[in-house]
């Protein structure tokens, strides 16, 4: 909808190159680590406790696109794994050197993910939404939305119909993600409230004409609000088709290497056997090498993984030799690969960014911005 020039001006692509450049510039990365460490080291004892590491773990989870801690058992497992990366599962305190090493690995892993699946940062300023409102196809599309919004809820109030209809607008229309809690509480609800009087809000069985008139008034006000206070949205699109798993399984050296790294931190008994209850944790560690999302990030993928684990009795807790454990992992990945090749999973996500990704999270600024000015 927007012109190409406007689109280019309002977009920023995060492809991981800035992160790689930062980590590889030792002087600048040391400064970046020093800043982060000082922010986290609340008691200034030169080490980070588990409690002090929590904000870093939360930032990393947010940068990975995970929901907040406490909202999903699967995503909470990932947060726990990130924390274990810092503490090695047992340490109570983490030194600056250890923090730097782990942070470097995590950032480079993020960079690899962004190179594969870049994130587009969109500045939504109301121009696209305005263009949509005044486009020839606007009314026909909204009429279609009207019938969808009223389907099965003919007794709904005008306010509820408009709120539901707004869910049908997307980033492509120039609308920030309408399901985002921040968008609902800061844009949708206040504007719907301000555009309708008390009688309008309670009105039921509204006609098509009445709905179109009220809806347009609300959407025009949303466009005006965006023009006054633009919203930044992170947009990403990923398709998981099994090709990454096939590449990994076809390269025995890389597959063994990925498994060995994952198994390093997994407990073993005195005979060197591993419990099958750790299959999920190892799969999560191997996921980036197989071009899979983290557990908890994509519900369809989680369902697929649960089915694959069920096929090998992955939750029976049985102790097995390392070679058998690796063989079982190959079977799980092979099962997931075949399912994805038959039915690829495409995921498009949009989330409001409340602070610049280059400052508050672990997607750091470009090295050039972090350098001290030369004398």
Short description:
With about 375 residues, the chain is an alpha+beta fold.
Description of the structure:
The protein is 57% helix and 10% strand. The protein is α+β, with helices and mostly antiparallel strands. Helix 4 packs across helix 5 and helix 9 packs across helix 12.
Write the layout of secondary structure elements.
Blueprint lengths: L3 H6 L1 E4 L2 H8 L1 H15 L6 E3 H14 L9 H15 L5 E3 H21 L2 E6 L2 H7 L4 H13 L7 H9 L14 H15 L2 H5 L5 H21 L2 E10 L2 H8 L1 H12 L10 E2 L3 H8 L12 H13 L7 E2 L1 H21 L2 E8 L14 H4 L5
Antiparallel strand pairs: 1-4, 2-3, 4-5, 5-8, 6-7
Helix pairs in contact: 2-6, 3-6, 4-5, 7-12, 8-9, 9-10, 9-12, 10-12, 13-17, 14-15, 16-17
**What can be said about the biggest beta sheet?**
4 strands, antiparallel
Broad structural category: alpha+beta
Query: How many structural domains?
Result: 3
Number of H/I helices: 18
**Gross geometry:** globular
- End-to-end separation: 47 Å
The count of DSSP E runs of length 2 or more, i.e. the number of strands, is: 8
Strand content: 5-15%
Q: Widest sheet: strand order?
A: 1-4-5-8
**How do the SSEs run, as a string of H and E?**
HEHHEHHEHEHHHHHHEHHEHHEHEH
Radius of gyration, taken over Cα atoms and rounded to an integer in Å: 24 Å
GO molecular function: calcium ion binding
Pfam family, one: EF-hand_7
Organism: Brassica campestris
Protein name: EF-hand domain-containing protein
């Amino acid at each position: 909808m927007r012109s190409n020039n406007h689109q280019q001006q309002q977009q920023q692509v995060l492809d991981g190159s800035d992160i790689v450049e930062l980590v590889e510039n030792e002087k600048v990365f040391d400064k970046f680590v020093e800043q982060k460490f000082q922010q986290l080291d609340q008691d200034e004892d030169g080490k980070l406790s588990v409690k002090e590491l929590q904000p870093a773990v939360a930032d990393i989870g947010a940068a990975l696109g995970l929901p907040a801690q406490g909202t999903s058992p699967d995503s909470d497992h990932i947060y726990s794994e990130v924390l274990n990366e810092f503490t090695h599962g047992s340490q109570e305190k983490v030194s600056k050197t250890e923090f730097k090493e782990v942070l470097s690995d995590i950032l480079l892993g993020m960079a690899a993910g962004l190179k594969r699946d870049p994130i587009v940062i969109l500045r939504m300023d109301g121009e696209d939404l305005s263009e949509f409102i005044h486009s020839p196809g606007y009314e026909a599309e909204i009429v279609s939305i009207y019938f969808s919004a009223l389907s099965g809820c003919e007794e709904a109030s005008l306010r509820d119909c408009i709120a539901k209809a707004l869910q049908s607008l997307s980033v492509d229309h120039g609308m920030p993600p309408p399901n985002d809690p921040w968008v609902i509480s800061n844009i949708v609800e206040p504007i719907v409230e301000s555009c309708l009087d008390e009688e309008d809000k309670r009105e039921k069985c509204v006609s098509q004409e009445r709905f179109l008139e009220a809806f347009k008034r609300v959407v025009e006000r949303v466009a005006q609000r965006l023009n006054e206070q633009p919203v930044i949205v992170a947009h990403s699109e990923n398709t998981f088709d099994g090709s990454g798993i096939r590449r990994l399984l076809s390269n025995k050296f890389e597959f063994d290497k990925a498994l060995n790294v994952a198994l390093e931190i997994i407990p073993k008994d005195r005979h060197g056997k591993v419990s099958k209850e750790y299959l999920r944790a190892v799969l999560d560690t191997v996921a980036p090498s197989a071009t899979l999302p983290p557990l908890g990030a994509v519900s369809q993928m989680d369902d697929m993984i649960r089915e694959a684990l069920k096929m090998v009795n992955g939750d029976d807790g049985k102790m097995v030799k390392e070679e058998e454990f690796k063989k079982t992992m190959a079977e799980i990945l092979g099962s997931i690969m075949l399912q994805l090749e038959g039915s690829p999973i495409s995921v498009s996500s949009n989330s409001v960014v409340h602070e610049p990704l280059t400052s508050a999270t672990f997607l750091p600024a470009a090295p050039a911005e972090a350098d001290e000015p030369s004398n």
